[in-house]
Amino acid sequence: MGNSAHPLPTPSTQAGREGLAALLARPAGAVVALDFDGTLADIVPDPEQSRAHPDVVPALSALAPQVAAVAVITGRPADTAVRYGGFAGAPGLDHLVVLGHYGAERWDAATATVHAPAPDPGVEAVRAALPAVLDGADSGIWVEEKGGRAVAVHTRRASDPQAAFEALRAPLGSLAERHGLIVEPGRLVLELRPPGMDKGVALEEYVKETGAEAVLYAGDDLGDLAAYAAVEKLRAEGTAGLLVCSGTGVPELAERADLLLPGPAAVADLLRSIARQITSL
Predict the structure, then answer these.
(1) Rounded to an integer, what distance in angstroms lies between the CA atom of residue 139 and that of residue 116?
(2) Hey, what's the torsion of the CAs at 186, 190, 194, 200, to 10 degrees?
(3) What is the pLDDT of residues 41-67, one digit of tens each?
């Protein structure tokens, strides 16, 4: 099936095969939703150096005009994901939506503007308290501020990244709780942010907004589990779904996926192959 250079892979589950078949049969009723870091962009030591894989924008440009909608759902600020993705003004992406901060922010390509609520005061309080909490910790630990809407503590550069990650879970959990925030763990990162929004809520609301009959969701980390759960819930309600996992770094995600891909280059190949398959039908 598909182009010989990039054959369309077969999902390992019946539900996934049905989801892909529904997307191909009725692309005008399908939503393609994608995480950014680790899914469209390779994971790098410095998140500020993260950029979409070179094949991603061409693949999205080929696919987006053929489906109901394409959305990027990320924990990053929406405008940062747009910038690092190179999405603004890209051909075929004039209806792309980027849901940033787990859906708290929304960027629409049609207007090139971000809509967002006021920052949570708890985030500023946590940011101010973090230096004291991290005092004496490994010098490789560093803090990423996310536009006043979240704070992420990274341990990837620590001398023992996993040990530093585990050691910080309890103190950061206590700090978050004191200021009405939650801690979202990821791969060697702990993000402190307001409760009430996650990728599952964002995805479910967007699918309902578009009236989609089928949804593809691709992610790579623990924060994507909520989106996986949303797709599983939508399936139970009659919406076809395909769950794609980028990489094998998070077993909890890989085990629930219908389709396991090695990383962003393969995700871009999948998107382009789907576009070609739709065109050939």
Answers:
(1) 34
(2) 0
(3) 999 988 889 999 999 999 999 999 999
For residue 4, pLDDT over 50 is answered with no
Q: 1 near 44, Cβ under 8 Å? A: no
C-alpha span between 151 and 167 (Å, rounded): 17
Residues paired with 215 in a beta bridge = 31, 241
Its pTM stands at: 0.87
For the sheet containing 240-246, what is the strand order?
Answer: 113-115, 105-108, 97-100, 69-73, 30-34, 214-219, 240-246, 259-261
Tokens of 41: 């962009």
Q: How many CA atoms lie within 13 A of 272 on its CB side?
A: 18
- Render pLDDT for 96-126 as a digit per residue (tens, 0 to 9): 999 999 999 999 999 999 998 888 899 999 9
Residue for token pair 């469209």: 40
Provide the 3-class DSSP secondary structure of residue 106: strand
